[in-house]
Amino acid sequence: MKHTVAYGTVVRRSRDDWTEIALRALAEGGLPAVAIEPLAARAGATKGSVYHHFSNREALLKATVERWEREHTEAVIELVEAEATPLDKLRTLFGTVLDRSRKGSVELALQQGAHDPVIAPVLHRVTERRLGYLRELFEELGFDAEHARKRALIAFSLYLGQVQMYATLPGLVEPVLDEAVQVLATNQAARDQTAVAHNV
């Protein structure tokens, strides 16, 4: 009798391996896809391999969405901050997050599972962090605090809309990306003030 894997061999998976597998499942099948038994089967491992790192499904899900938080929010902000100007930062921010969304929308799956008690606090924290960072960018572009807050909300809404479009209407987002950034970054009030100053 032949075995594809030698008898007694155990495929060892690390904590990071399991959160990576869970992220892929989340992007492909949404929240219901993050379940220990099917994930273990998908990885060619036993359920015990998952339970070695996580006490239950909630613990795995929490670690998974916290990894997403680090990689898709904090790491993205760090990347964007390397750009020289606020406009370059805004363009890089949109380009980076939308490129990642095209490869599988964990974002969309999490938005759809926003009422889950594990996901809700992480999603709330991430949303506040993203809106705060966008507000800072718009202030750097010359908007006052109130208008920067409103532009941040518009930009974030645009991002979520584009994520949805990638899932349902792929191919219709890229042509408007640069124009969208230009529109968002245009500070008409500041331009009007400059024009007045030049005419004085």
Span between termini: 93 Å
What multimeric state do the chains show?
single chain
Helix content: over 70%
Strand percentage lies at: under 5%
Notes on the structure:
This protein is mostly helical and 200 residues long. It is built from 10 helices and no strands. Helix 4 packs antiparallel against helix 5 (86-102), helix 4 (57-80) runs parallel beside helix 7 (119-140) and helix 5 (86-102) runs parallel beside helix 8 (145-168). Residues 1-9 and 194-198 have low confidence and may be disordered.
What can be said about this structure in brief?
The chain is mainly alpha-helical and 200 residues long. The chain contains 10 helices and no strands.
Q: What characteristics describe this protein?
A:
72% helix, 200 residues, mainly alpha, 10 helices
Write the layout of secondary structure elements.
Layout: H1 15-29, H2 36-43, H3 47-51, H4 57-80, H5 86-102, H6 106-112, H7 119-140, H8 145-168, H9 177-185, H10 188-199
Helix pairs in contact: 1-4, 1-6, 4-5, 4-7, 5-7, 5-8, 5-9, 7-8
